[in-house]
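Exercise 4. Each item below gives a protein and its sequence. For each, produce the structure-token representation.

Item: 4Fe-4S ferredoxin, iron-sulfur binding protein (Anaeromyxobacter dehalogenans).
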Amino acid sequence: MLRSPVFLSALTFLAVALGVRAAQAPWREQFPGSYPRVVAPAEARFEFLPDELRIHLSDQTRSGRIIVFAHVEGGSLLGLLKPIVDGTVTVRRGDLADYALAIHGGEIGEHRLLKAMDRYVEREDMLERILEARAKGLRFGVQRCLYPICNRCLDGCKSVMRRDYPISMRVGERGNVEPGFAKGSCPRCGKCFVWCPSGVLRDSGSLTN
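Answer:
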């Protein structure tokens, strides 16, 4: 009887049904780690010179990379990845933006890279855009998060969660782009802050969200 076609068919149907039910159920696996925290935006002093902008970071960051951004009319943001040298970032006339992000309120839309291989498909002078934003009262500044050039926190989250990802990108209070988290749905795996190269995500040391 255990080998009869009817019994085997019923067993197969039951296994498939249980598998579908498990896939549709919310995934609530919890890890023993703590929740991530988002580091506050970088403080900086802007020194405008005739043909360049010097951005002096106020914290202890002396080297590494950071994004210089400027909002433009029409609901988009331009970004340029720059090195930090002795705590200072320099934007010169002729430095072209690396990417453009669509902004809808506080939400991040699609992005497009303005440089393909060794040439620019769109030429946006970053210094001119910053000066324009300054004159029109639009937001500009620096941000630690390297999105969309870097997606490692999103990739780490997607490698653990099947759906309903708790992490997403948002516009911060100062106009900068930063990651945000949906409370209660983070599995505390720690991949986002372990994989983050810029240190904008760190271990909070807290088990409560």
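Check: The chain is about 20% helix and 35% strand.
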